[in-house]
Amino acid sequence: MEPLQSAFRALADPTRRGILTLLAQSEMTIGEVTEAFPMTRAAVKKHLTILEEGRLIEVEPRGRERVNRLRPGALKPVSDWITQLDAAWDDRLADLKSAIERDLQ
After folding, report:
1. Are residues 66 and 86 in the same domain?
2. Are residues 91 and 57 in the same domain?
3. Do 86 and 100 fall within a single domain?
4. What is the chain's pLDDT, residue by residue, as a tens digit (105 residues)?
5. What is the domain extent for residue 84?
6. Which of 2, 97, 95, 17 is nearest to 54 (CA)?
7. CA–CA distance, 46 with 16 (Å, rounded to integer)
8. Is pTM beyond 0.90 here?
């Protein structure tokens, strides 16, 4: 799956966005993430797997635990894509403004 598509798939779910918010504050084990949500450890693990597949988090084995953390710059491809769309709309709106101003003269 394309990296940007994987990132959007991961971001599509509100629980995964909540997990990202937690991991933006500090790294956490699966157990710590599970404590923050009303769901099973298996369900949290599935969400973490999708976030990892989307390259939004990285997982580091530490002994018997796996520590999850937000990847630095993970949302940059998403931000870049949104910025491209924003720039396109800015150009279109500027063209519209120019056309209206010409018609008013």
Report:
1. no
2. no
3. yes
4. 587 889 999 999 999 999 999 999 999 999 999 999 999 999 999 999 999 999 999 999 999 999 999 998 888 888 888 888 876 676 777 777 777 878 888
5. 75-105
6. 2
7. 10
8. no
